[in-house]
Amino acid sequence: MLAKIWLENARRAMDQIEETQLDSIRQAAEAMADTIEAGRWVHTFGCGHATIPVEEMYPRIGGFVGFHPMIELPLTFFTNIVGGMSVHQFVFLERVEGYGLEIMKGYNFDPRDCMWLFSHSGINAVNIDIALEARRQGMKVIAFGSVKEAEGKQTRHSSGKTLFELADIRVDTCVPAGDASVPLMNHVDKVGPVSTVAFVTAVWMTVTTVAEILAERGVQLHIHPSHNVPGDTTAKERLSEALAEYKRRIAGV
User: Residue 148 maps to which CATH number?
Assistant: First the structure.
């Protein structure tokens, strides 16, 4: 049953993250905690389906202020499939060297910030542009993706480096290079990618660790509450407070 094969593959990636990446996750979380405690931002960026972990962590219930999503619509919003802002344009744009530098011009950064990048392959130019510019501006670069599978891959950037070679901290999502994991009868290509579930697993392992570190330091987090729980009479107020804090901090970005 192919459904069970996919589930086994997804579980295997999650188990391997737990078995091999806890130290790297802790290292990433400590850097992020330092940034958030300083009143600065963990900037988050990805292309294509690697924007899903960006959108997953903030804003959403159980997320907290300190993570700044950088979403470039032409690099993610291709649900038209064909036509305007579609798959053909996306595949082209994520490989265009220099595009990432133009994206960075739209924001203000600080050396106390972190740049958290998501890329399954680590070889496309936009992510590498952003990593290089973040390093130039003094930020720590944290990269999540299929680190081991990227070893020996040819980068598409003139720097000669992959994203994972440029990162200060790397967390391996333990996903096969091809991402899709389930072979299908009479077909060359597999179905059932697992990179998204691995990204989201690694994200929440990291973000909860950031929260743990900050709470232990006595830092008060501005957490998005659920506003759908009957009887919680202060949820709306807590949500307003979190958004007000985000608004206050984002003024400099």
Answer: 3.40.50.10490
